[in-house]
Specification:
Elements: H1 9-26, H2 28-61, H3 68-119, H4 121-124, H5 127-138, H6 142-170, H7 174-202, H8 204-218, H9 220-229, H10 232-284, H11 290-331, E1 353-360, E2 370-377, E3 382-386, H12 393-400, E4 408-413, E5 416-417, H13 423-427, E6 430-433, H14 445-450, H15 460-469, H16 473-476, H17 499-513, E7 517-521, H18 529-542, E8 547-551, H19 555-558, E9 563-568, E10 571-576, H20 578-584, H21 587-602, H22 606-609
């Protein structure tokens, strides 16, 4: 968000209407009940003042009017009914407000997650969209604030309309006196609220950075390194300095605001006293009763407070709308490309994939990552893709998964154009282990594996079988609760797996999914060489008849593939079996020799020794 960004009146109205629709979508009954209750409650002070005024007049008239006691009883009954009604409506208002406040944020988060899921990966990787998403997440809480403000505005307007109607019928001259006396205070509040809003925009990035440092010094995991390096003081000072800067500005501006507010408050007092004097004069000349005096004075006070409240509420509504506007924009985003309408049938054997004259560049770039690519992956074939970072390997996978659509050419899977497939039917035939695989710390070991195929009924025997093939069973069974162990030490009774153990659990998840098309992107980067060899021997056997695509820098991973494809600058420069490529004596053979030599001479760790370098 830009520091000088202003919300147009049109966008303000759109955002306000969108928020109302959102509440009607999420909490229709509670929302309507709260608005109705708030509106009714706004009239209560005027009705209460009117009834008290009548009681005062009847009390004064008791000695001269024999019917006055009876009239007082009627008024007291009316007052009692008013109080009972107010209590009932107040509790309805309180209940609906609490219900909405408690659940609006999680409800909106559900809608946000559904929206993000519908946008597709290409949209989510767009930098502009990603920034919008991050800011929108920060502003979800503003929805509750805006709705509270909206109900306040309705109440203030109702109070002002009622007060104006009464004053016009008695002393119209009082209206301009009150309005002009309140106006400076209204403008003052509006000025400083907007000033604080602009300052909030200005320091957004500084605040995020400062709080990020604060998060580090409060995280037990990060504290391990910070304690040793003595970096705690540096990060703590960053946060402390920011708070001092923030506090200094707010204190200085708020002091000016409140000093001026006192001055303008005195002006309002003078205006009120002058209005009271006009009412007193009418009483002196016996134009009104003492009860009327009480009623009209309270009405003047209600008008003043209503105008001030309305001004503050509108300014607050504008401020929150600037933030919620980005949430509205997020919900109005559309996917980068439409879903297909052709269904891919559920298959049990590996599908064939064909790239024909495919060229692709990322939307934010003018450089082609893949250029004029022709590639046939046969059904049930085990292929490995190697090449230096940036060669286009992962991009190839993203096109197969239809995270992006190709710019030129086409990709088919089992002779169906992948762009025309309904994505959900494609994904039910695919399993992927990304280099940055997911870890679910809040789940048990069993759930971390089961989530690979959550649509099925969990079968513990199959989950254990998958864990054994991924070399994960031995360490899982040693946990205190075995497969029911939560995998984070931050939960009671939980434990934290090592990086290598997490990777084995992620591989077990893919074994459990058992899809016809299997994709591994650097699947064993954190696993020792012996476990890696065992796992991949099982992969080649377990996924017999399935199509397997492996991206890796380790020769121990790729050398047993049916075919190895060497990528460079988005093109295939070599392909064949390990033996074929060694005989070719090209780039693959050179890299293999360098890796083998590095391993034998330096005795580096398994992870680094087996890394393919180019």
């Amino acid at each position: 968000m830009q520091e000088d960004k202003k919300l147009s009146s049109k966008d303000f109205l759109k955002t306000f209407i969108w928020t109302i629709k959102l509440y009607l979508q999420v909490f229709p009954k509670y929302f309507i009940a709260q608005l109705t209750a708030s509106t009714l409650l706004s009239f209560e002070p005027l009705i209460n003042s009117f009834l008290f005024a009548k009681i005062i007049d009847y009390l004064l008239a008791i000695q001269n009017d024999p019917q006055a006691p009876t009239k007082i009883i009627y008024i007291i009954i009316a007052l009692a009914l008013l109080y009972v009604t107010r209590t009932l409506i107040s509790h309805i208002n309180w209940f609906t407000r609490q219900q909405i406040q408690s659940f609006i944020n999680p409800k909106v988060r559900i809608l946000v997650s559904q929206k993000l899921h519908s946008l597709g990966i290409q949209s989510l990787e767009n930098p502009t969209v990603n920034n919008l998403i991050e800011r929108s997440r920060d502003h979800i809480y503003q929805i509750t604030r805006q709705m509270d403000t909206t109900t306040s505005i309705i109440g203030d307007i109702s109070l002002i309309v009622g007060s104006v109607a009464i004053i016009i019928s008695v002393k119209p001259i009082i209206l301009p006196i009150i309005f002009f006396a309140v106006l400076p205070d209204v403008l003052l509040d509006s000025h400083y609220i907007k000033k604080f809003w602009r300052f909030d925009l200005k320091i957004t990035e500084k605040r995020r950075s400062a709080y990020e440092s604060q998060n580090h010094v409060m995280d037990s995991k990060d504290m391990q390194e910070l304690t040793i390096t003595q970096g705690y003081t540096y990060l703590a000072d960053r946060f402390s300095n920011f708070v001092d800067y923030w506090f200094s500005f707010i204190t200085k501006q708020r002091t000016k605001w409140y000093v001026l507010a006192v001055i303008f408050g005195i002006l309002q007092i003078i205006a009120r006293l002058f209005s009271y004097a006009l009412i007193f004069i009418d009483f002196i000349y016996k134009k009104i009763t003492i009860g009327n005096v009480t009623f009209y004075i309270r009405t003047i006070e209600s008008l003043s407070s209503g105008i001030m409240g309305l001004s503050q509420s509108v300014t607050s509504l504008y401020e929150s709308s600037q933030r919620i506007d980005e949430l509205r924009q997020l919900f109005e985003l559309t996917p980068s490309f439409e879903d297909g309408n052709q269904k891919m049938p559920k298959v049990t054997t590996g599908p064939g994939i064909i790239f024909k004259n495919v060229s692709f560049k990322y939307p934010s770039s003018s450089k082609y990552v893949i250029k004029d690519l022709n590639l046939i992956i046969n059904p049930g074939e085990k292929i490995a893709i190697v090449g230096h970072n940036g060669a286009g390997k992962t991009t190839l996978i993203k096109l197969i998964l239809r995270f992006y659509q190709v710019d030129k050419g086409n990709v088919t899977i089992n002779n169906q154009n992948i762009n025309k497939l309904k994505i959900s039917t494609l994904y039910r035939n695919v399993g992927v282990l990304f280099q940055d695989y997911n870890i679910y710390k809040e789940l048990t070991a069993l759930e971390n594996i089961f989530i690979g195929r959550p649509a099925s009924k969990p079968t513990k025997s199959k989950i254990i079988k998958a864990a054994k093939k991924a070399d994960a069973h031995d360490f899982i069974k040693e946990y205190e609760k075995g497969y029911d162990q939560i995998l984070s030490e931050k939960y009671k009774g939980g434990t934290r797996p090592s990086t290598g153990q997490w990777q084995k659990i992620a591989i077990a998840r893919l074994f459990y999914r058992n899809p016809p098309l299997v994709i591994f992107d650097e699947p064993t980067a954190s696993i020792d060489a012996l476990s890696e060899q065992r796992i991949f021997n099982r992969i080649y056997k377990f996924f017999k008849g399935k199509t397997v695509i492996i991206i890796s820098h380790r020769f121990s991973t790729v050398r047993n593939a049916d075919r190895i494809i060497v990528f460079d600058k988005g093109k295939i420069i070599e392909q064949g079996s390990h033996e074929d490529l060694i005989k070719l004596n090209g780039k693959y053979a050179t890299a293999f020799a360098i890796q083998a030599k590095g391993y034998s001479t330096s005795h580096t760790s398994d992870k680094e020794a087996l890394r393919l370098k180019s």
